[in-house]
Amino acid sequence: MAHARALSRRYDDIVPVSALREGFTHGGTRWSYGSFYSGIFRPAGFEGPAALSLVTAPPKVGRDVPYEDGVDRVSGRLVYHYRTAQQDSFAARAAAERDNRALRAAADLGVPLIYFVGIAPGMYTPVAPVFVTEDSPDRRVVFLEAALPVQDTTSAGLISDDELRRYATREVRIRLHQHRFRTVVLAAYRGRCAVCALREASLLQAAHIIEDREEAGTAVVVNGIALCAIHHLAYDRNVMGIDPTGVVHIAGRLLRAIDGPMLSSGLQAFHGEHIELPRHAVQRPDPHRLEIRYEQFKAAG
Question: How confident is the model at residue 160 (pLDDT cuts 50, 70, 90)?
Answer without folding.
Answer: low
